[in-house]
Write a structure and sequence with these properties.
Layout lengths: L1 H13 L13 H7 L52 E5 L14 E2 L4 E4 L5 E4 L5 E5 L4 H5 L4 E6 L2 E6 L3 E6 L5 E6 L9 E3 L2 E5 L4 E6 L5 E6 L13 E4 L2 E5 L5 E5 L5 E5 L19 E2 L3 E6 L3 E6 L5 E5 L8 E3 L2 E5 L4 E6 L5 E6 L6 H4 L4 E6 L3 E6 L3 E6 L5 E6 L9 E3 L2 E6 L2 E5 L1
Antiparallel strand pairs: 1-32, 2-3, 3-4, 4-5, 6-7, 7-8, 8-9, 10-11, 11-12, 12-13, 14-15, 15-16, 16-17, 18-19, 19-20, 20-21, 22-23, 23-24, 24-25, 26-27, 27-28, 28-29, 30-31, 31-32
């Protein structure tokens, strides 16, 4: 609440709007004139652009101990074919604003579900054949080109969209179970725990609704509700608690049953709200005791799940979801470096340059989107349509597959095949 009051007073005193034409914090010289005798609040940190212990080999023969858990965003390892020979696509009309969207294919083990630009839900079986195709939008709603966020709990598919509608579908036959309207569209992942659904809307309000009928169970208002995030908020559910980040970098723990606040850990200075608009936080991930995430301000954190205390902080500039690999953490920086970090101490064990296969003049424009791991390989997608196969033991890029010229989603593993999503198709790699 203190930070909220400070920001309101600041805005009132300067009488500016958020329009860039109003010169609201856009002229650096004017800021410096107003604060000549004040030390700089935000210093640029040196971002790693060099290797460290590049010849160190990682032992990939050890039995993998981490377990994949969607509630914790813990991808663990996946079983997929690493030798790609063929590519096929399921095409649909182009999804509008795909470059700002983080597509998720959702799986129930034998099937997966996605959607197209008209809001059609499509269920595919393990042979990639369509099981059913359903649409629950009116003619006027279809014109708005709804973008859907999906989650599955047993035989129920939950759908939230960007036009403030959310509903439940029978996963077996595609029949509508219930449908509701929200005041604001969500801007987060969806998690389902027991009989409750958790999401965060565009105003940083955490909402819990019933899986049975969509009725509201509780809601929690985070601070600075008018600060919008350029990236969706991440949610994990563990130990009967909901953990999430808000738009200004706070990590929040809430009782999953009643919505009471357990702890809140700020990770950014309360005096730099003008920079909150470009803060991009990776998805949160959790193991047994710790919560890990990174951001585009050269910070990778490990927090204690029980009390929110910071275990350690390391200089890693990444907006991409990390993964746990036994007692290690794998992270890919926005500059194309593969970091391996000790999950207990936070010490960097090795850094290798995986973007050295790109020409220097093009490299700065190329950004990682996401990756999955097997026992000995990583598959990393990029914003220019490339898929990189990286050897974990050596940290070197072995192969580059040209999938497209535009952004592709992070990779998904299904039936030993890799799936990717583009703005107008689902891509299958064999």
């Amino acid at each position: 609440m203190t930070r909220y009051i400070i920001l309101l007073l600041f805005i009132f005193l300067y009488g500016c709007s958020f329009n860039t034409n109003s010169r609201f914090w856009t002229e650096e010289k004017e800021v410096e004139k107003l604060s000549k005798n004040i030390s700089k609040i935000l210093e640029k940190k040196l971002i790693t652009k060099k290797e460290f212990n590049p010849n160190l080999k990682i032992d990939t023969s050890k039995k993998f101990r981490s377990i994949s858990d969607d509630l914790s965003n813990n991808s663990a390892i996946k079983n997929f074919n690493k030798d790609i020979d063929k590519i096929s696509k399921f095409k649909f009309s182009k999804i509008r604003d795909f470059e700002y969207f983080e597509p998720e294919l959702v799986f129930d083990g034998k099937n997966f579900v996605f959607f197209d630009d008209q809001g059609n839900l499509i269920k595919f079986d393990e042979n990639f054949k369509i099981v059913w195709k359903k649409n629950f939008y009116s003619k006027e709603e279809k014109k708005q080109k709804p973008i859907l966020t999906l989650s599955i709990k047993e035989k129920t598919l939950i759908v939230f969209d960007n036009i403030s509608k959310f509903y439940a579908v029978n996963l077996e036959n595609g029949d509508l179970l219930w449908s509701k309207k929200n005041k604001n569209p969500i801007n987060s992942q969806i998690k389902i725990f027991d009989d409750k659904i958790y999401s965060v809307d565009m105003n940083n309000i955490i909402r819990c609704v019933s899986l049975l009928d969509g009725s509201e169970v509780w809601k929690f208002k985070s601070e600075n509700i008018f600060l919008k995030s350029p990236k969706r908020n991440s949610i994990i559910v563990k130990n009967n608690r909901v953990y999430l980040n808000n738009s200004i970098g706070d990590i929040i723990a809430i009782n999953a049953q009643n919505g009471s606040l357990l702890w809140q850990t700020p990770t950014q200075s309360s005096l730099i709200y003008e920079n909150a608009f470009d803060l991009i936080i990776s998805d949160l991930i959790a193991d047994q005791d710790n919560l890990v995430f990174s951001n585009n301000r050269n910070e990778l954190y490990s927090l204690n799940l029980n009390n929110g205390l910071i275990n350690w902080k390391q200089d890693v500039n990444s907006s991409v979801r990390s993964i746990f690999y036994n007692n290690l953490i794998f992270s890919i920086s926005n500059e194309g470096y593969f970091f391996i970090i000790d999950s207990k101490s936070g010490n960097i064990i090795r850094i290798t340059d995986i973007f050295n296969i790109f020409k220097n003049k093009n490299r700065e424009k190329i950004k990682p989107i996401g990756f999955i791991a097997s026992y000995n390989k990583l598959m990393l997608s990029t914003n220019n349509g490339k898929l990189l196969k990286i050897d974990i033991a050596s940290g070197k890029t072995e192969s580059v597959f040209k999938i497209d010229k535009e952004k592709i989603s992070r990779p998904f593993a299904f039936n030993k095949k890799i799936l990717l999503v583009k703005n107008n198709s689902i891509i299958r790699l064999n």
